[in-house]
Protein 1
Amino acid sequence: MAAAFIPSPSRGTWHLGPLPIRAYALCLVGGIILGVWAASRCYRRVGGRPGVILDIATWAVPCGLAGARLYSVITDYQLYFGAGRDWVTIVRIWDGGLGIPGAVAAGSLGAWLACRHAGVSPAPVAGAAAPGLAFGLAAGYWGNWFSQQVYGRPSTMPLAVEISPAHRVPGYENYATFQPTFLYECGWDLLVGVLVIWAARRFLPAGDRAFAGCLAGLAVGRYFTESLRIDPAYHLLGLRVSQWVMALVFTGAAGYLYLTRGKRAPDHTGGAAAGSGTLRPTSAAVPLAPGDCPPAQFFHVPGVSAPGMSGQICTGSAQSACNL
């Protein structure tokens, strides 16, 4: 049975000469790269130019990191302030302590500002970013395995994760294996990302609705894993504060989906005027790679059809072949 346990990592830091290479930071960077790549690929399928998402990411990623750290500092301020604490550790994001709700909120704000700055329609960007967000989070959660910071209640079930004595929560020193919440969140977020892509093909939602649906799905998974965690946290009416935040996110996203029910995306991605900033315009003249579909085909508009590069008409039953 012990062979089924997930072992604790032998080390979380390597050294390249005097330079420390932290696994948590590598997972964080890997998640960002994966998320931006997936979003860029999806955006191209909406008819957008390849470089637009990367330009937006230069706004969204720094804002997201700042928001993630701010959320962690606010909700766990006792870890950074008070007797024996050094507030300088606030800037040490490579050691862990990033709040996903803060990252999503601030990152979304940064992306919206980037779209406003360049005149890019935000809805297709949001729709493309939805699966990228889910996949990026799934990869980033593996940083918690290396840092051994986030895990659930003691468990002897298969796939329980071994936690070294130095990283066990006070009061649980005599337990060796725990619920692998990072693994649960990774699997759930991958599922959410796949479902968002499937829903985009099947139900043809507007981009903002796809993003709202993604947030609702992510909130459900995070609410569940938060209920398993045993690390110290503030509680309100018997629930961790993070669970209340996830409940609010889900309620807001579900409410938005209800209020915008039936809405579908326009047949274009929009874009900045030529020469106005680094984000380039996206119009019908944007060249498409072989097999790509024109903008109307990812978020389909009833009655609109256009030929793909290979000559097919992306409507009806042929449409799904032209999507992601």
Note: The radius of gyration is 22 Å.
Protein 2
Amino acid sequence: MPQTMRVLVLVFLMTDCTKIPYNGFTS
């Protein structure tokens, strides 16, 4: 089930953005 992987990536991305102040990534 690739759905779980997709959700994980989404959560990881969100957490990464909030944890690491990467302006280029968010932009």
Note: The two ends are 30 Å apart (CA to CA).
Protein 3
Amino acid sequence: MAWLTVKEALDLLKSEGVSVSDHMIRRWLREGKLKGKRPKNRKEGWRVDQKHLIQFIQSKKSQDSQTSTIHIYEAYEVLKKERDTLLAENEQLKAELEYLRKELSDKGINKIKKQEPEIDDHYLFDLSLLYAKSEDHGGVPVEIMQDEGDEEEFDEAPLVEKEKISREKVMKIWQEQIKRLNDREEVLKRAKEVLFTTLFKEDDRYATIEQTEKGYYICPFRSPRGKYYGSALKLIETAIPVLIKYANIQYGRELERQKLGY
């Protein structure tokens, strides 16, 4: 029977990819997990059964592999569940859009040919794309999904003079909107951050919102082109509840991941 010193056993373990300390080896020896001989005096130290140590290494590597496989499988199940949720929401939104289009058709409302570039439905309903584009805003989607259509169809005629919307005004609108909602503080915090960082550049006092040649305000919370509004105030009032909705969805996903340990 071959015997190894604790240092030799440690070197063998490390060479096999098992990272431990000499203290752990002595603990395993005391607990009987490793076969060895107790030292007759302090100078000699423990002696480890080489054959049993090799068997121990193989067993430990097998256990580590099984644990890793379990973790990968659990992570896969979490992502699969998230994918299924997004697909279900996607289908629901498509059904709602189709219903609204049918309502317009039944009422004999004809669309006027658009002057602005068409909006690809891919951008309207690809929720996974929405989340992928939200990294710069704490995980809150920075696009609002809205139906495509003409400026005249979407909103009233724009005001003659360009509106100057201050931070104070947006804050007042925000506070009025959240009075009617019952959302968690963290959700409101995220949605508010996206609202203000999108509308205001650094320390600017007034909001910056792009306009078309005809004077319509383009919603800045979606891509590639937003819905058109004749009033900047109406744009902001419409955006707030939708931002909160998607902040709520993202926050719920994060809580579920934390619950599962990811």
Note: Residues 111-131, 133-153 have pLDDT under 50 and may be disordered.
Protein 4
Amino acid sequence: MMVDVNISEEVLTRLRGRVAFLAQSGPSPRGSPERATGSVELSA
């Protein structure tokens, strides 16, 4: 159980790091539509 918990924590930290990196990079398919809608809402 302890080993599984440690692995899960490491995986979560890695996923969070990737999400933050993708959010900063921008060209990711998930981030681009969200920013596009956000820019449209701000402009409108």
Note: The chain has a mean pLDDT of 68.
